[in-house]
Amino acid sequence: MYKVILNRCENYEYENIKELLKKQINALGGMDKFIRKGETVVIKPNLVMKKAPEEAATTHPSFIRAAAELVIEAGGRAVIAESPGGPFNELMLKPIYKTCRMTEVAELSGAELNFDTSTAEYPFPDGMLLKRITASEAIVKADKIINVCKLKTHGMATMTGAVKNMFGVIPGTMKAEYHLNRSNITDFANALIDICLFAHPILSITDAVDCMEGNGPTGGTPKHVGAVMTSENPFALDIASAYILGIDTKKIPVCAEAIKRGISPESIKDIELSGDDIESLRVKDFVIPKTKPINVTENLPKFLYRFVNGILQPYPCFDHTKCISCGRCAANCPPKALSMENGKPSFNKEKCIRCFCCQELCPAVAVEIRKPLLYKMFSSL
Predict the structure, then answer these.
(1) For the CA atoms of the chain, what is the radius of gyration?
(2) Are 151 and 210 in contact (CB under 8 A)?
(3) Residue 177's pLDDT is what?
(4) Average pLDDT of each block of 10 consecutive residues along the chain (381 residues)?
């Protein structure tokens, strides 16, 4: 039986967060069950980009500090490690750690910040799609991983939680290759599942105090939900998260595919819940992304797929008045559908694979996802 511990939490007051996490981990057997003295434990947050905690795009520092201190108190060595989108190097990591307040967390907790950006390719024979995975050595070589995600909407994946957070083991620019080679949302969802199984976090924790609704994972609106959840199983944790937000798991490709593969509970009824009553934590008006994947093109011949996909699927639109000419969209576009002309993004719609990395990584929130008329017709069916 899958087990999820959940509690109401109205704010990010550090002592309260730590007490709740300690109580939840104890309900699962205690930290001693998961780590041994002397082990190196990576604390893996969601630090998608340089965003202040108040923007609800990244895991709140109170969660990372609490998790790190609990590891240290159990005799482990805590290392905060992440591979955000974009170049994976120390120069890029430092400002992200600072803005997301991980630098402060490390100083307060005694945890270390990871600046080892070496990568390696690892065999993964158990993967359904991915038999070899290129990953951050610092994360993969740790003795244990604790996955501390931020619950948010996502333009491509509908919702990002515990499972998708493990995509962060893939080095920054290498993420584009994974998107490009698996542009079909079903394939990409299964790739995310394989990566999560490969990383194998011993604990997964969801920061759902203030979530992000609307056009997440970086351009949406903070939404107070007031929940903290912990589980040994990231798939069960995402099912519980979807239930709290009122999102049908069939609309979340990662959840839907994990259920098909038999590695996830099918519904909240298959999860043993303890802590506070989940019904009291449910949100009735959570806003999911304006777009959702339409899979009508999946079974078409390849020569028709690109044409139909181009006229049917949503696509990014760029507001040049908001654009700050940073070039992150073009630099991180997997199919190279974007280029910078006169300091602004120029878009080749025919090349677009609808991964929406441009929207995810835009610091100015200058990317909007537009819906063609045919998309509106099919998505209403």
Answers:
(1) 20
(2) no
(3) 81
(4) 96 98 98 97 96 97 98 98 90 96 98 97 96 96 98 93 97 82 86 98 98 94 98 98 97 97 98 98 92 51 58 80 92 90 90 84 86 53 42
Maximum C-alpha span of the chain: 59
- Report d(CA 95, CA 115) in Å as an integer: 12
| Predicted pLDDT at 27 | 98
Question: How open is the CA angle 91-96-97, to the nearest 5 degrees?
Answer: 100
Which stretches of 184-264 are assigned E, i.e. beta strand?
203-213, 221-231
DSSP, collapsed to helix, strand or coil, labels residue 20 as: helix
Query: pTM, whole model, 2 decimals?
Result: 0.88
**Encoded tokens for 369:** 């996802």
Angle at 108 between CA 105 and CA 114, to 5 degrees: 45
- Residue pair 55/222 in contact (Cβ under 8 Å)? The answer is yes
Residues 6 or more apart whose CB falls under 8 angstroms from that of 184 comprise 298
- pLDDT value at residue 305: 56
What six digits make up the tokens of 310?
Answer: 């181009």
| CB contact at 8 A, 223 and 211 | yes
Say how far apart CA 21 and CA 291 lie, in whole Å: 34
Whose structure tokens read 């304006």?
290
DSSP state, 262? T
Question: 269: exposed, middle or buried (C-beta count within 10 Å: 0-12, 13-18, 19+)?
Answer: exposed
For 315-368, give the DSSP string: EEEE-TTT-----HHHHT-TT--EEEETTEEEE-GGG--S--HHHHH-TT--EE
Cα dihedral 253, 256, 257, 259, rounded to 10, equals 160
